[in-house]
Specification:
Blueprint: H1 4-10, H2 16-28, H3 30-34, E1 36-42, E2 45-50, H4 53-61, H5 63-74, E3 81-86, H6 114-128
Parallel strand pairs: 2-3
Antiparallel strand pairs: 1-2
Helix pairs in contact: 2-5
Length: 129
């Protein structure tokens, strides 16, 4: 009996990216999957986004083992190589603060960025001196 991943991989309606996305956490495990994800499949090369250089280096050294495991899970012939790239950190959505909740004492206090606020205050201080 063939694995379900192999049957899915043979179906023409399912893209290689979809198969890779489903097979990746199974092939590499929870820890590695938490720090990486499938980005794309380009010319049978599986492109993986990783958090930083350390993860990129470590996974690059394990790429042959990971590729063999991906073949076991998703089926043979789907991917010929793995490519790891560092993904840009994703910013989580932030809530907009209610301006009426806290009255502004100084016009510089309305600047959210701490370094810009400091630069503004110093420039204002130099201009008034």
């Amino acid at each position: 009996m063939e694995r379900a991943g192999r049957l899915i991989a043979r179906m023409k309606a399912v893209s290689p990216e979809a198969v890779a996305t489903r097979a990746w956490p199974i092939a590499v495990g929870k820890i590695i999957a938490a720090h990486s994800n499938v980005a794309a499949v380009v010319d049978k090369k599986l492109v993986i986004d990783v958090e930083d250089f350390e993860w990129q280096r470590q996974l690059f050294t394990l790429r042959r083992q990971i590729l063999a495991r991906m073949e076991q899970v998703a089926g043979t012939g789907l991917f010929i190589d793995l490519q790891f790239r560092i993904a840009l950190p994703r910013r989580m959505p932030q809530r907009e603060e209610n301006a009426a909740a806290a009255p502004v004492q100084d016009e510089a206090d309305g600047i959210r960025d701490r370094s810009l606020r400091y630069a503004y205050k110093m420039a204002r201080k130099r201009a008034s001196a």
